[in-house]
Structures are given as C-alpha cells and as structure tokens.
Amino acid sequence: MTSTMITTKVELRQRLKALERAMTAEEKDASDAALREGFLQIPEYRAARTVLLYVGTGAEVDTRPLIENALASGKRVALPVIAGPGVMEARAVTDLDLLVPGPYGIPAPGPDSELVPPEAMDLILVPGMAFTEDGWRLGRGGGYYDRYLPQTNALTVALARDFQMVGYIPVEPHDVPVDALVIDSGEEE
Fold first, then answer.
1. SS3 call for 158
2. Residues 59 and 164 sit within 8 Å (Cβ to Cβ)
3. Mean pLDDT per segment of 10 residues, for the chain of length 189 residues?
4. Torsion sign across C-alpha atoms 93, 75, 80, 19
5. 8 A C-beta contact, residue 108 and residue 79
6. CA distance 118 to 90
7. Which residues in 129-146 are b (16+ Cβ under 10 Å) and which e?
8. Which helix (H) or strand (E) is 138 found in, with range?
9. CA 76, 78, 83 angle in degrees (round to 5)?
10. Cα–Cα distance between 112 and 98 in angstroms, integer?
11. Which pTM was predicted?
C-alpha cells in the first residue's frame, strides 16, 4: 500500500463498508455465486461431517445455499449463536425455516436447539470484512470468532470478494487468522 495506508481497524471497516455499498445487486449476485461454488469445491468441506456455517446478512455473501447444501449432504450443521457478552456458541440447525432472529438481527437456531461443542467441528466458515493473503481477517468488531476459534482444531475458511483482499490488517494478540480463503476471482489460497 502507499502512504495512504490505512492503519486502524476502524478506518479499514469504513473503507470496506463503502466498497460494499458500491456493489450493484448484479455484482453481488455474481460474486456470491462464485464464492459459494469455490467453497463447495473444497475437499475438506466435502469430507467434513460437522460444519459451523453462518447466515450471511446485508452485504455479506448469501450463505443460505451453502447451509442447504450441507443439510442435503447429510452433514451436521451448526450456526453461531451469541450466548452472552463476547460469547459465541454453536447450535445445530436442521431446517432454515426454524431460525429465529438473534442479536444484531442475524437469524440463528432457537435456544432449545442442540449445543454443538467446538471440538466436534471439522470445518468452520468464518465471516469477515477484510483479509490478507496469509489469512488474517478483520471482523465486524465483536471478537466472537477470535474467542471461539482457539477452542477448536477445525479447518477455518473464509469467503472473500476481491476488494476485501488487502495488504495489511492491524493485528492484535487476540486475533486469529483463517486457514484458507476462497476468493471470488476463483483463486484459493
């Protein structure tokens, strides 16, 4: 990056939100489709028995088709649930129609759904706003995944639009990188 390098997470989030807003519906749909197709081709996804996915909202990738694919493939599917301040847990889902609005308006399994322990995960799809080639990610600022991921040995994967790939993300000691990236240009890191 040049002398205009963004040096704080707040600045980087502002820049990425502007780029997200600038996407047309057609660009988003094409990007979403490419990212989903790339994810479905990952051998570790195909072999995984238990996966933690998330429901993409707003400018995020529409992940509902991935959840539906995992369910149709007979995988045990969990989604994140905010369990308290800074605490995320994974709860099983068997039908997208059973999701309820969770904190931040994100659809989530209800409180009576099965708790899936972190050590049961084979693969985790991790959301993010920005990523570096070596897997560092910038989330939305809650730190939920950074606290959850050290509890598991699962392969972690993120979906990244081309504009979400950046040369630098300010990293703090608690930040956790992802193991693999699927980028909408078709490259897998």
1. strand
2. no
3. 57 85 90 96 97 93 97 97 90 94 87 95 96 90 90 96 90 90 73
4. negative
5. yes
6. 7
7. bbbbeebbbbbeeeebbb
8. strand 137-138
9. 150
10. 11
11. 0.90
Copy the structure tokens of residue 49: 């028995």
51: closest CA among 33, 22, 74?
A: 74
What's the rounded Cα separation, in Å, for the pair 124 and 158?
8
Supply the pLDDT for residue 5: 52
Task: Give ∠ CA 77-112-40 in degrees, rounded to 5.
Answer: 10
HEC per residue, 60-107: CCCCHHHHHHHHHCCCEEEEEEEEECCEEEEEEECCHHHCEECHHHCE
Q: What are the distances in angstroms from CA 188 to CA 28, 41, 179, 182?
A: 19, 10, 11, 5
* Predicted local distance difference test score (pLDDT) of residue 85: 86
- 134 and 179 in contact (C-beta within 8 Å)? no
Enter the tokens of residue 188. Answer: 């897998």
Domains of the chain, CATH where assigned: 9-183 (3.40.50.10420)
Q: Which residues pair with 52 in a beta bridge?
A: 78, 124
Measured at the CA of 161, the angle between CA 159 and CA 165, to 5 degrees, comes to: 95
pLDDT of residue 9: 81
Q: What is the Cβ-side half-sphere exposure of residue 46, based on CA atoms within 13 angstroms?
A: 6
pLDDT for 48 equals: 98
- At 42 the pLDDT is 96
